[in-house]
Amino acid sequence: MSALHLVFLGTSAAAPTAHRNLSGLFLKREGQAFLFDCGEGTQRQMIRYGTGFSLDAVFFTHFHADHYLGIIGFVRTLGMLGRTTPLVMYGPKPAATFLPKVIKLGVDEVTLPIEIVEVEPGQVVLRGHGYRVEAFQTDHRIPSVGYALIEDARPGRFDITKAQALGIPEGPLFGNCNAAKRSVCRMDASYRQATSWGQTAQEGASSFRATRGPVTEPSPPRKVPMCWCTRRRLVIWNNCAPVTRGIRRREKRRSWRAMQASSSS
Question: Which of 94, 130, 136, 156 has the CA that lies 20 to 30 A from 219?
Answer without folding.
Answer: 136
